[in-house]
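Run log // design_07
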């Protein structure tokens, strides 16, 4: 059973959440405003940190002038250095000694989870001369010196191309944000463990923007990622890449310096330099948390339908963490665990009423129930899907049932169930540093690496 501290915090959490949801229902809103909001005033946010102070640099970008849609990019410091060669005669090391494991968690775990389906895991260089941006303007003219702004822009050298994970936060459609303290911590952990660029999506919240706003935002970011890759390729072919690595950026770099002081030319180019230099969109993974898992599954289905229209973006896998699924016919867990911790069923019903328009409200809506017919495309075309569920979560059975349907059509769709765990056990602020939260992130990294490793360098277990 969950600890006493978790039980007490759950009571306090549900009291506050219910109060906020009722206020949202009672407060008249201008739903005709498409700009919307992506975070709430009560949400504690983490400031972006572009200096690799803890091994991961972050920056925020507002990518749509017509809405509040934004993203936070997480770039691991490993992108700056070539991968270390592995000794041929080296023996496999236990995962707790892995280079990418979070330093605060190293203890052994024996209670991890049950698995459903297949889970096959088998000295300083000379300061570079000032460069010119893609527009031909000297960065000194823009007064963006590296000793003023401790940012990062890629240097003109052989760069590693890292996979990209699009991450969608949780919060029951009405709360949460991509730059919250908890989400920032979780994304940093995933970026380090998986050695990937994480793009956390700040989609519009309900009830200011009801369905399909959040789903449209998720798909818009996926298309934006493809545009970035195509623009970077065009920039390179036109010869502008020599000025700053395909992004129109100027660079002053000290390779031996742990705190790299490099300039980012804000607004100097349409190309996002971090993604242009280090991102490999052909190895894209979708990761959704709670209601964010619903968005991830929707985006994956749309990616399958789009096919080669999304080139060079290719969704190779998705991770659904305790997806926010529901249905009109209750499952066993929905009956037995209706009053479960943090997010009980009655509270989630309020969230769905705030999210779905009144004329479309149905527990068997296409985005609410993954088992209804007519969702499309055929499940056999869906990407490999890892589902994470918690023992004390009323949503678990429907998530497991969806995974079973995927496996019936030969999609790699394992389920990890964590014992004595509650909804959002790996992403909620007070639970982020628990052994189970760390174990979950490690398990996700192991599975994801099967699909993002370059051919010939796959991991063996």
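design_07 sequence
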């Amino acid at each position: 059973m969950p600890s006493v501290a978790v039980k007490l915090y759950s009571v306090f959490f549900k009291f506050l959440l219910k109060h906020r949801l009722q206020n949202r229902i009672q407060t008249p809103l201008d739903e005709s405003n498409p700009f919307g909001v992506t975070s709430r005033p009560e949400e504690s946010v983490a400031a972006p940190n572009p200096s690799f102070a803890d091994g991961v640099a972050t920056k925020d970008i507002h990518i749509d002038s017509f809405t509040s849609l934004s993203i936070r990019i997480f770039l691991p410091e490993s992108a700056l250095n070539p991968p270390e060669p592995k000794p041929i005669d080296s023996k496999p090391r236990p995962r707790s000694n892995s280079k990418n494991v979070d330093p605060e968690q190293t203890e052994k775990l024996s209670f991890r989870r049950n698995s459903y389906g297949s889970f096959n895991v088998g000295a300083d260089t000379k300061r570079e001369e000032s460069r010119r941006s893609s527009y031909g303007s000297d960065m000194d003219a823009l007064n963006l010196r590296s000793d003023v702004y401790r940012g990062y822009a890629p240097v003109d050298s052989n760069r590693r191309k890292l996979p990209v994970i699009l991450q969608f936060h949780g919060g029951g459609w009405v709360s949460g944000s991509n730059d919250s303290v908890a989400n920032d911590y979780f994304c940093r952990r995933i970026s380090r463990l998986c050695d990937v660029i994480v793009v956390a999506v700040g989609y519009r919240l309900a009830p200011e923007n009801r369905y399909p706003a959040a789903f449209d935002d998720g798909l818009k970011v996926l298309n934006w990622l493809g545009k970035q890759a195509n623009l970077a390729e065009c920039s390179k072919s036109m010869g502008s890449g020599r000025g700053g690595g395909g992004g129109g950026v100027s660079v002053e770099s000290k390779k031996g310096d742990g705190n790299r002081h490099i300039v980012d030319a804000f607004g100097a180019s349409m190309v996002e330099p971090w993604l242009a230099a280090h991102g490999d969109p052909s190895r894209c993974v979708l990761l959704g948390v709670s209601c964010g898992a619903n968005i991830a599954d929707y985006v994956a289905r749309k990616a399958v339908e789009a096919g080669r229209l999304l080139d060079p973006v290719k969704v190779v896998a998705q991770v659904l963490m305790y997806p926010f699924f529901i249905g009109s016919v209750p499952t066993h867990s929905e009956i037995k665990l209706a009053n479960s911790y943090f997010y009980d069923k009655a509270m989630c019903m309020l969230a769905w009423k705030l999210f779905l328009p009144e004329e479309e409200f149905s527990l068997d809506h296409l985005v609410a129930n993954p088992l209804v017919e007519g969702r499309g495309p055929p499940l056999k075309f869906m990407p490999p899907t890892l589902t994470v569920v918690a023992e004390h979560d009323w949503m678990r059975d429907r998530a497991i049932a969806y995974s079973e349907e995927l496996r019936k059509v030969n999609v790699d769709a394992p389920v990890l169930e964590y014992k004595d765990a509650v909804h959002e056990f790996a992403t909620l602020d007070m639970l982020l540093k628990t052994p189970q939260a760390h174990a979950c992130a490690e398990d996700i990294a192991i599975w994801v690496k099967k699909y993002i490793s370059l051919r010939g360098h796959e991991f063996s277990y």
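The mean pLDDT is 80.
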